[in-house]
Amino acid sequence: MTGKWKNTATFVKRVHPGPADDMQNFITYQAITQNVKRQLAVKVQRDGQIDVNLNLKLPVNVVEYARDHLQDKANVQRLNDQLSEIMTQEAEEIIRTLQESGCDAFGIGRQLIAHYPAIWKSVNWNKEYPNVRFHTQVTVDIVGNGILN
Hints:
The protein is built from 4 helices and 5 strands. By secondary structure, it is of the alpha+beta class.
């Protein structure tokens, strides 16, 4: 999410209900990390609440999907939506964990120093950072499948 990955990141996600040992319920895909589009915007509300909008556009190549049918646009769109929802939930969990541990991996404090110096001087960042509201959206876009695209 910070843009400091290698060339690809591989994920395996369950996209169909059913037994966990049935491989037909899973999809394996690689995120093309050099093509990730990340938008990060820090805003301070009138009441002093800090909001962060984090949007990621994640192009992926499907490596393995046992049910196939990736030529069907409706199926691809359903998978895009489902993977976007899964990845958004996981991103929110990661951000909560980072906040609980006091890790400002996205540099929100730096953004405050640069754009809101008066706010920065008036807050205790170690106490305020866990209260920052993140609004996260990950949009997955299947751009290829298999070895040959």
